[in-house]
Specification:
By secondary structure, the chain is mostly beta strands. Helix content is 9%, strand content 37%.
Length: 403
């Protein structure tokens, strides 16, 4: 009887353990299932790893916005793949692509949008000249005399407010904050380099993380922010002597966004960890008579949030903050590198503490090294386009249709 009781108890324990194991497996499977918010409709353009940069433009002038991922573009509305030059599909667990960030711009002012590609950090960037629906590769042009573009989160920003995007970055050889201006006359192909800082300043290493542009001191002139502080803007945007003010703007991050989060009349900075865990807003405060910042945690939902962008997703007149996980950022070598590629947006609520609200978008897309936003289906709402090691994705925004 003792033996039989022992056997019975052992069988019972094994049965209980089996049930617990199956329950845990089912729970993990449920959590691992691809999920998209009811407010967004996801289209998987491709699962190929082509680029970690992405852009949107009507490349063939048919009136429909196309999706750009490195040397490839996908033709709306059926997303037929086209190739602009020599390239290939990359192995996300072993390689990086040659396309880290993308921008669309009519560089040479010929009426056709071209494609700008920021290559691996510290390498020269280039642009591909639209072949105007002709056969063959697009002509490749090096930007700014092959200047080695530094900082892993260069900004595509209209620095001089002429209606054309510029590139805010660093020169890794001279360790200088600069901006690169596209041609201003039709037919020209050369970009102009403008120096903001002196040489040998912070935030200019090949792998520096975090740079942004906005008015910090409320003087009506926009400044450049990096994690170590900010460069005070001048009317002359090529003076190379913008004064640096040291301040604490958090950890190594992706694109730094400047806006007044709590509507106290002073601009704050929002950033997200490039390779760690955290999304923060840095509240502008005064410390010992100088501008400084107090950091507030917004989210620890996902790590490696290596890109961000502001866009008004809910059409309430205020910009929202979009970021997401850079899937396999270092090819799976980091802790959590291969976790679910989550995409998020944050609604700012300036009249309601804590002044933001986090919203889930998707757990099987993530973000690359820059995010594109555009009204892709012409319904009046801003949509999101992603390219990364997980593929290329379109997230159509239906917030205003389903709320």
């Amino acid at each position: 009887m003792i033996y039989n009781n022992t056997v019975f108890r052992a069988d019972l324990i094994m049965a209980i353990l089996s049930i617990l194991f199956l329950t845990a497996c089912n729970s993990e499977n449920i959590q691992a299932q691809p999920k998209t918010s009811e407010y967004f409709n996801k289209t998987t353009i491709t699962r190929d790893f082509l680029s970690e940069g992405v852009a949107v433009a009507d490349l063939n002038k048919d009136g429909l916005p196309d999706i750009i991922a490195g040397f490839f573009w996908f033709e709306a509305p059926n997303w037929k793949r086209h190739q602009m030059g020599p390239s290939r599909v990359f192995n996300p667990k072993e390689e990086y692509s040659e396309s880290f960030l993308n921008m669309a711009l009519d560089v040479n002012l010929d009426g056709w949008d071209d494609v700008v590609i920021i290559d691996y950090p510290g390498k020269a960037s280039f642009w591909l000249e639209n072949n105007q629906n002709q056969e063959g590769d697009w002509k490749k042009h090096i930007i700014a005399d092959a200047m080695n573009v530094g900082n892993e989160s260069p900004g595509f920003i209209d620095i001089n407010e002429d209606g054309r995007l510029d590139i805010l970055c660093s020169d890794v050889m001279k360790k200088q904050i600069v901006w690169l201006q596209a041609p201003t006359r039709a037919g020209e192909t050369n970009w102009t380099r403008h120096n903001i800082s002196t040489e040998n300043v912070a935030g200019t290493d090949r792998y520096s993380h975090g740079i942004g542009y906005g008015d910090i001191n409320n003087d009506g002139i926009k400044d450049v922010v990096i994690t170590e502080g900010w460069f005070e803007g001048q009317d002359n945007k090529s003076s190379a002597n913008w004064r640096f003010h040291q301040a604490n703007l958090g950890e190594a991050c992706s694109h730094m966004q400047v806006l007044d989060v709590n509507q106290d009349g002073k601009n704050d900075v929002v950033s997200a960890s490039a390779h760690g865990l955290g999304v923060w807003w840095h509240e502008q405060i005064e410390l010992d008579g100088h501008i400084n910042f107090k950091t507030h945690l917004m989210s620890e939902t996902t790590a490696q949030t290596h890109s961000s962008i502001l866009a008004d997703l809910d059409n309430n007149g205020r910009p929202d903050y979009i970021t997401g996980k850079r899937y396999l950022a270092h090819n799976g070598r980091d802790a959590g590198d291969a976790d679910a590629p989550i995409l998020l947006w944050f609604e700012f609520t300036p009249n309601r503490y804590p002044y933001f609200k986090e919203h889930f978008i998707d757990n099987d897309s993530g973000a690359g090294l820059n995010i594109a936003t555009h009204d892709m289906n012409q319904d009046g709402s801003i949509d999101i386009v992603i390219a990364n090691k997980n593929g290329v994705f379109l997230l159509e925004n239906h917030l205003n249709h389903t709320k």
